[in-house]
Every structure is written in structure tokens, then in C-alpha cells.
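Predict fold of Cytochrome bc1 complex Rieske iron-sulfur subunit; 363 aa.
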Amino acid sequence: MSGDMTEHDEHGHGPVAVDEHGHGHVVPSGDPFADPGLPEHHPRLTDISEKAAKRSERIVAGLFVLSAVATIAFMVCYTQVPNNRQSLVNFFPIGAMSASNFALGVCLGVALFSMGAGAIYWARTLMTDVEIPQERHEYESSNEDKAAAIAEFQQGVEDSDWKKRPLIRRTLIGAMAVLPLPALWILRDLGPLPGNALRYTAWTGGELIINDNTVSLDGTTGQGIRPEDITIGSLVNARPKAALSAGDDFNNMMVKSSILLVRMNEADIKSSQERDWGYHGIVAFSKICTHVGCPVALYEQQTHHMLCPCHQSTFDLSDDGRVIFGPAARSLPQLPITVNADGYLVARSDFNQPVGPSFWERG
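Predicted 3D structure, encoded as C-alpha cells:
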């Protein structure tokens, strides 16, 4: 027999359809889900005890004050805590990090956590927790609904005790006023204007070129590079010998003086100046992209193209580092090189133009 037989189930859930295999299922009715309504509201301790409410108020205010203090501590640490090799702190098993980074992270984390924890604790203990159902509509609300929403908002302000709790109000306003200050505080590192800071680097005539792959872990020793160490098509990251004893000025020196050495067939070099500034097909260019200062390191041997991974600026190392694609506005600066009496590659002079991102003071 085909078709379904319909009867009611034993629990009164509605009609049950039985198929030809004897399997039954409840047939959904027009309104299968009854409105459960809102659960009974139970007042909190802070709703019935002003003493408990005052205690919660002090906790919230304390968290806001802690946020403000941590924010100010962030600015103090940014200025006073050193950020160099001597300040490294070992956090096992994470590894070593500078005391400055650790202090800044702790201060900012405490500031943000305290602000959020204070707001949450305020809402959970002092703001009203009465649930108010509201129908949602896809279309614009009527003027009556808008007026009702404004009235509900105003009622919410009243329920939050914003006016009644001046201690919370003042400490929150104070913490919110202090929180954006680190963004302004760190702007101090944007100055002074580039000027000579980008125009000159650590490279001078006779400065030994050090292979980055031979530098010790503490950055104080490294080996020079002989021309025979570089094969055609290979890429070598290098630094000036002065960087091995730079101390606290190491980061500032490396960000301007890092170079890339590439060897190609001399016949592939298109520019006579580039050929004169190189040594038997070995040429040296700044590692810092002239767009926004990212390190370039993606070399294509067949085309002699160097790609910056940040914004895809592409430079032709066989043609004075000329820009052939991307947003960079000028070529990679080339470092004139030669060999010294011991047969090691050295710089002949500094770069002929400022390294790094272009700036309008170049003249």
C-alpha cells in the first residue's frame, strides 16, 4: 500500500504521518514554536544594597585609574627604557626580547585590559539588566518608534547611573582622555626631517664589505668577501665593517647601510657607469626600497630584476637599478666598489644619492 497514514502521537504533539515502511514523523503545525516569554527577573545584590553598589563603583573607578596610570607608564617606558642589545631579557621558552618591547607591551596590555574590564564590570553590576524585547523591522522606523528609541536611550542613561555616579564618570573621562596620548607621543620619532640623516651612510672609501652570513650571533665579528666567493647569479647580503662595532647605533646604521651584492656577466650590464662602479660583474645596491623603505631581496637571475615584496616595485640591476614596475619613484642607489690590497671587496665611497624612501628635500 502506498501513501501515508495520519494519526496523533501519544504525547499530543500533533498529527503523525506514517509511511509505507511503518516509520512515523510529526507533521509540523502552523505555529510549531510557542512564545516562551521572558524569564523572571532576579535583582542583583547591587540593585538592593547601596553598600554593594558603592563597592562596585570603587572597583570600576580603580580599574579606570589603573588604565590611565598604565597609559602614562607606556609613554615613560617609551622614552626611558633602552632598546638595544644590552637591554635584552631572556623569557624562557619564548626567547629574548628587549626590555623596551616588554615594558611597552605590558603597559599597553594593562591599559587596554583595565579599560575593558572596568566597562564590563560596570555594565554587569551597576547598569540595569532588565531585558526589554523589541521587534525588528526591515524598513525605516516610524517617528513614534524613533521617539521611543530616544526615550529608551535616555532611560538607559538614567539606569546606568551616569549622573548619579560622578566618580565613575570622571575617572572614565580621564582614562579615555589619556588613552590616545601614546599615538601622539611616538610621533616624536618621525623627526627630525630627513636632511643629512638619509643622505650619508656608514660607507666610506676603503670600508670593508662584510658577508651577513658570517656575522657572529652577538654581531661583533664577521668575514670580508673576496670576488671569487660570489658566483654568477648569486645574491649576497652584506654590511659595512663599521656595523660590527656600532653598539647602540647598530639599528640606525643597518637600516641605511645594508647592501646586496650580485654577480652577473659583464656583457649583461647595460650601463657603463654601473660597469665602472662594479668589479668584474659584481655590483652593489642598497637593500632599502626607494618607495617606503622595505627590504628588497627577491632576485630573478635570468632578467636581473630585483622585486620588493611589499608593493611589488621592480628594479633592473643590470641598468643602474632602474625602476621598471611599481610605485617606487627612483632607482636603487648603487654603491661603488673595488678590492683592497688583501683582495677583499671594499667600498670606493658612499652612495651617490640618499638611500631609502624618496623625499622632497633631495633638491
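The helical segments are 45-48, 50-80, 99-125, 143-159, 166-178, 181-185, 250-257, 272-277.
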